[in-house]
Specification:
N-(1-d-carboxylethyl)-l-norvaline Dehydrogenase, domain 2, two-stranded antiparallel sheet, alpha/beta, 11 helices, Rossmann fold, 10 strands, binds nicotinamide-adenine-dinucleotide, 2 domains
Length: 290
C-alpha cells in the first residue's frame, strides 16, 4: 500500500502534487535541485491552502497538519522509505533520465516510480530505470489542487499491480483517472497542444491579435481560458517540448512547432512563471504583448 510519497521537482506541478498528497494524509518528501524552488514551493502551498480555507474547503487545523507532513531536501536519500516517487521535473528527457539514475539506488525494492511527464514515452523512461514493471505515467493537470483529472499511462512493461496501486492512489487523492496508451503526448496533450500551437500560428500569421484570438476561443467555444492565456499558464517551454515530442514521435509535419513559439522560448519569455509570455504579468492585470 502506498503511504509515503516522494516528489521530484518543486515547480508549479511538483508543489501542487505535494499539496494534494499532504492534504489527503500522505507523508510527502519533496526534492528539487534548486533550494530556492523548495522554499518557494512551501510558500506557494501555504498560500494556496489559505485560499482553500477562505473558500471553506479546508480548516486551519487541516492546513497545519498537511504542512507538517511535507519535508524537503536536495539529496535523493530522502526517498529511502518512499513507497512511490512522482517525478515532476522539467520536461526534458535527459534531465528525467539523470534523475532516475540518481533516484533508483536510494529506493526500496518494492517502491514504485511515476512520471508526471506531459508527453515523453513512459516505456522509454521506464526502461532507463532498474524497475520498468514498477514504473508508469501519472499525469496531473495544472493547477493540481483544482483540476480533477489524472491521466494514467501504462508503459509496455508496466505491471498490472503497479497500475492498480496508482489508480487506487489517484482515487484516494480525490481525483478521477482516465487511462491512455503510451503514445506521444497521450490523450490530453495530443489534442490540446496542437490547438495551442495553431493559436500561435494564428497570431504569427496576423489572423488575429492576442486579445482577439483568446476572446474568440473563450466566447466562441466556451473554453474557460483562451489558448494563448492557457499556453502562458502551462509554460511556453513545456508547450514547445510537447510539440517536439509530437513532431518527432509521429513524424507528421502537422505537428511542427510554430516559429513564434520557438522565438518566445529562446527569449526566455516562458509565460506566467517568468512574468512574460503572450501577456505581460508585471502589473496588476495581464497585458497582451501583441
Ligand atoms: P517548472 O519549470 O515549474 O518546474 C520544474 C522544476 O524541476 C523546477 O523547480 C526545477 O528546479 C526542477 N528541476 C529541474 N531539473 C531538476 C533535477 N535534475 N533535479 C531536481 N529538480 C529539478 O515545470 P512544471 O510546469 O512544474 O513541469 C514539471 C513537469 O510536469 C514536466 O514534465 C511537465 O511536462 C509536467 N506537466 C506540466 C503541466 C503544466 O501545465 N505546466 C501540466 C502537466 C504536467
Amino acid at each position: 500500500m502506498i503511504q509515503k510519497i516522494g516528489v521530484v521537482g518543486a515547480g508549479q506541478m511538483g508543489n501542487g502534487i505535494a499539496h494534494v498528497c499532504a492534504m489527503n494524509g500522505f507523508e510527502v518528501r519533496l526534492l528539487d535541485a534548486n533550494p530556492d524552488s523548495l522554499a518557494k514551493a512551501l510558500a506557494t502551498i501555504a498560500g494556496n491552502m489559505d485560499r482553500q480555507i477562505k473558500k471553506g474547503a479546508m480548516t486551519q487545523e487541516a492546513k497545519d497538519a498537511a504542512l507538517a507532513r511535507i519535508s524537503t531536501g536536495t539529496d535523493f536519500a530522502i526517498f529511502s522509505d518512499s513507497d512511490l516517487v512522482i517525478e515532476a521535473a522539467t520536461e526534458n528527457e535527459a534531465v528525467k533520465r539523470e534523475i532516475f539514475k540518481k533516484l533508483c539506488p536510494h529506493l526500496k525494492k518494492a517502491a514504485l516510480i511515476a512520471s508526471n511527464t506531459s508527453s515523453i514515452s513512459i516505456t522509454r523512461l521506464g526502461a532507463s530505470t532498474d524497475r520498468a514493471a514498477q514504473f508508469m505515467g501519472m499525469h496531473f493537470m495544472n493547477p493540481v489542487p483544482v483540476m480533477q483529472l489524472v491521466e494514467l499511462i501504462r508503459g509496455i512493461a508496466t505491471s498490472n499491480e503497479t497500475y492498480e496501486a496508482v489508480k487506487e492512489l489517484t482515487a484516494k487523492l480525490g481525483k478521477i483517472s482516465a487511462t491512455a496508451e503510451d503514445f506521444p503526448a497521450f490523450i490530453v496533450n495530443r489534442i490540446l497542444l496542437p490547438m495551442i500551437n495553431e493559436a500561435v500560428y494564428t497570431l504569427y500569421e496576423g489572423v488575429g491579435s492576442v486579445e482577439s484570438i483568446d476572446t474568440a476561443m473563450k466566447l466562441g467555444t466556451n473554453h474557460p481560458m483562451g489558448p494563448l492565456e492557457l499556453a502562458d499558464f502551462i509554460g511556453l517551454d513545456t508547450c514547445l517540448a510537447v510539440m517536439h515530442v509530437l513532431y518527432d514521435g509521429l513524424s507528421d509535419s502537422k505537428y511542427r512547432p510554430c516559429p513564434l513559439l520557438v522565438k518566445y522560448v529562446e527569449a526566455g519569455w516562458l509565460g506566467r512563471k517568468t512574468k512574460r509570455g503572450f501577456y505581460d504579468y508585471s502589473g496588476p492585470k495581464p497585458v497582451p504583448t501583441r
